[in-house]
Amino acid sequence: MANKWTTLEESWEILDQLADPYVGIVRREYRKLRDVDDIWGHSYGAHGTDSNILFGIPSNSYNGGGSANPAAARLAAIGETVERYSAAYLPLNSDVVCFGTQKDLINEGKSVIGFDKWEMYAVTQYEDPNFPHDRWNEDTKLWWRKGHIAENNEEVWTPAQLIHIANYTEWPGDPDIGHATSNGLACGITYQEAAISGLFETIERDAFMLTWYNKLSLPQIDINTSPRLKHFYERYIKPTSLNLHLVDMSIFSGVPTILAVIRNPHTDLAPFAIGAASAHSIERACEKAAIEGMYTRTWVKTEQRLGNALVDVDYHRDINSFEDHIKLYAGTAIVKEADFLTASEKLVDVKDYAPFDDRSPDILWTNLVSHLSKQGYHVATFDLTSPDIKDSGAYVVKSIIPGYKPIDVLYRGRMLGGERILKHSYHLGLVDKPFKLEELNPIPHPFP
């Protein structure tokens, strides 16, 4: 348990050693130039080492980080590179993985998060000839990864290919049961800090999935009700002359969660971009989401200027990566499909939201886990720290909430399974009736 937060200086001492042009996990790093309509902050790019040479599995090579603080921006870029690298390391010859069926593990007395808890895909999706994944059940042989339930630290097992970032073919004998992403993955100097960051990401992305697929127009935060947010806007956003909308998605989990929608009212260059964040307080969630949204727009500008925008596309064929989702909204006509995100004129006061106690990582983690447990959702964490990263003093953790919706990537493999995406908005009083599968938003999302 962590009784105090790691300082920026302490983080620098650990992560700085992982960046080196010859032997680093980060082999190349650079500061990015700021355009006149970019956020008034700092942005770093980081290129990772070739993990395919080191342990036979490729990892995401290009990563980045942004912050109002240049040191924090650099550490964010290093941290993202480390988390993607470490999550690609598969501990096949260790006691944290095993091979068998869900039924086998249960008969051995193991607790599992299996096919009935993940609820990734709707039954009818498997009948679509374009659908890329195999149906699985309690008799499907798979590699399983050990983790722990956050409430009681009890051991739990779940399919390894849904936890690590590696192609299913890297797990000998595994069928293709789903598309793994970095959803809920984070690097931290302590295990608990990494788990908290991953948990916030899991909450944020579930909220966006529900907002997008249910086509909800939610209230927006009134920046003028918070001196802190007003200062943030005046200092970092207003000089860009862009419009910032802070859409409140907290209702889905009760954890402060914001969708930042950036709009360019002046030209056709990158007219729209989004970012999202959850945090202990509504103000911090607003700041994080706005920063992410602004840097996403920088990415959109790059794709548009390079002529990479996707037009006249076949969604099933052409939407296969997060880059494709960005290119789809790079100044194209489809941008109007996202207008519903900012259609609500209702403004909410920042003072209406009580923050979670964040005096220490231990207190915040306990409060978040307890809060979600009372709603019937149980957090699980998985230690994905590779041996070299562990030796350096850092951790990589994946936090999941079975039943919550992870962000999807493949259009033909949209994660439309489970009750939450169909009924949660209805139970919250946001819509008049539950959704049917065919009523969900058919347009690919713009999430980066």
Mean pLDDT: 97
Order of helices and strands: HEEHEHEHHEEEHEHEEEHHHEHEHEH
Would you report the number of β strands? 14
Radius of gyration: 21 Å
Number of domains: 3
Largest sheet, described in full?
6 strands, antiparallel
Low-confidence stretches: none
Choose one word for the global shape. globular
Percent in strands = 15-25%
The class by helix and strand makeup works out as: alpha+beta
* Percentage of residues in helical conformation: 25-40%
Distance between the termini: 32 Å
- Counted by DSSP, the helix tally is 13
Protein name: Plantazolicin synthase D
Organism: Bacillus safensis
Domain YcaO: 65-448
Layout of helices and strands, plus pairs?
Blueprint: H1 8-15, E1 26-31, E2 42-48, H2 51-55, E3 62-67, H3 70-87, E4 97-100, H4 102-107, H5 115-118, E5 142-149, E6 155-159, E7 185-188, H6 191-213, E8 220-221, H7 227-237, E9 243-248, E10 257-263, E11 272-278, H8 282-305, H9 315-318, H10 322-328, E12 347-348, H11 361-374, E13 380-383, H12 387-392, E14 395-400, H13 420-427
Parallel strand pairs: 8-12
Antiparallel strand pairs: 1-2, 2-3, 4-5, 5-6, 5-13, 7-14, 9-10, 10-11, 13-14
